[in-house]
Design goal:
CATH class: Alpha Beta
Structural class: alpha+beta
Radius of gyration: 18 Å
Number of domains: 1
Shape: globular
Helix content: 10-25%
């Protein structure tokens, strides 16, 4: 577990970390030839802005929390997947006593995301979901291929929840990974659509 900064000004207070692994063998009445593995790494942390009203400058906490949680969650994913990660994504849920911007702040930053991106040598951006909710609410992590956002085979969503989180003063931060595409995928890809529609793959909007 990475070193945690427990200074008064920029605390990183982790209540729990959770690792969830799903293997799918049958989907839609058909066996999955190579089972898809979905991996979720979550950290439940104290919201560093809770109870402080409107805070204009979020960067000190972003820079304190982002690298620590990014390293922690990335390590949890890599311990399971090694160099086999194909799809990836991120998500966060802030408790009802926080602001949606708090959930966004802790995930939409290179201080957090680059830990994962660099570990898996990714070329595409990390797709995301950020919401606010009470304990037990859904946490949805969208995934896409780490190197090619046009491959629909790797468009899928991890759906999890934690019964006692987030509390009103907490944030759940999560990374997701897939080994394999979504089970029995057969919807083609973006490039096939562009070709059939007569669009230039390198200039799909025609501008």
């Amino acid at each position: 577990m990475p070193e945690i900064n427990n200074t008064v000004t920029n605390p990183v207070e982790i209540r729990r970390k959770i690792l969830n692994i799903q293997d799918t063998y049958i989907e839609g009445w058909k066996k999955v030839e190579v089972p898809t593995k979905l991996i979720t790494a979550m950290a439940i942390i104290k919201n560093p802005w809770f109870g402080r009203g409107h805070v204009e400058n979020l960067r000190p906490e972003i820079q304190a929390v982002g690298p620590v949680i990014g390293e922690l969650l990335t390590g949890m994913i890599m311990d399971v997947a090694g160099d086999k990660v194909e799809g990836y994504g991120k998500a966060s849920v802030v408790g009802m006593g926080g602001e949606l911007e708090h959930a966004q702040a802790l995930t939409h930053t290179l201080w957090f995301g680059n830990k994962y991106r660099e570990a898996v040598n990714a070329q595409s951006y990390l797709v995301f979901a950020n919401t606010r909710g009470a304990a037990g609410c859904s946490l949805m992590i969208p995934l896409m291929h780490k190197d090619d956002g046009g491959l629909r085979s790797h468009y899928q969503t991890i759906h999890v929840s934690v019964q006692d989180a987030p509390a009103e003063d907490e944030v759940i931060i999560a990374l997701g990974a897939s080994i394999g595409g979504h089970p029995n995928h057969r919807i083609g890809n973006r490039y096939q659509d562009l070709k059939e529609m007569g669009h230039d793959v390198d200039n799909p909007a025609g501008v």
